[in-house]
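User: Predict the structure for this protein chain, please.
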Amino acid sequence: MLIFIIILYVGLAGYGGIENKMEIKVVRSVRRKRTVSACVVNDTLLVRAPMAISGERLEKIVNSLKSRFERQKTKEELNRKEDLAQVAARLNEKYFNNQLKINSVEYVSNQTSRLGCCNYRSANIRISHRIGAMPTWVRDYVLIHEMSHLIEPNHSKAFWNIVSRYRLAERARGFIMGCRNEI
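Assistant: Here is the predicted structure, written as structure tokens:
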């Protein structure tokens, strides 16, 4: 059986001061016919691919896998680094007089266009991993915005009155608009 192994070392730019570094091992085999598989072992992305796959196609697949790994690693690191439930509890006490019942709050890596989302029925709040790279006062604004949906599930005037309790709300909105213009 003929097998080629290609080893790449890649430094990935992280979020919120988190630097992800990983080694990529590509194992090409004549026995493998069509599928490409991957797993992460000790910060090493092990990619198994058929020998017949073109280098260009394999590079696209490896880049996609690398991106997925980076987002997952960043999400795990952010959730380990800061407890969003504690931050939400502090904000709930300060701005909502502890009247909100929040089921869960966590960073997620699959939100590409939204910075946060709130399911007001289940009281689950998800914050995009991209918020981890922004200042804490912006993170607090996004949390307050999402927490406000537990009281007002829409973007009515009453909703914006609740959000505006946060003194840096307008500044945070401007910061977010500036970030979106850079994308």
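The beta strands are 3-12, 20-29, 37-41, 44-50, 104-108, 116-119, 124-128.
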